[in-house]
Amino acid sequence: MSFFTLRGTAALAAPLVLLVAAASALAAPPATPSAPLPAPLREALRDGGVPPAHAAFFVQRVDAGRPLVAHNAAKPMNPASVMKLVTTYAALELLGPAYTWKTEVLTDAGEGRDGTLGGNLYLRGSGDPGLDLERFSQLLRQLRMRGTSEIDGDLVLDRSAFRLPPHDPAAFDQQPLRAYNAGPDALLIDHKSLRIALLPDAAARRVRVAAENPADGVRIDGRVTLDDSACNGWRERLQIGVDGGTLSIAGSYSRQCGEKTLHLSPWPADRQVEQLFRALWRELGGRFSGRVREGETPAGARLLHTHESPPLAEVLRGVNKWSNNVSARQIFLTLAATRPATPEAAQASIGQWLAAKGVAGSVLDNGSGLSQQERLTAEGLGRLLLAAWDSPVMPELIASLPIAGSDGTLKKRLQESAAAGRAHLKTGYLDGVRSIAGYVLDRSGRRWVVVGFLNDPRMKNGSAPLDALVQWVAER
Question: Does 172 map to a domain?
Answer without folding.
Answer: no
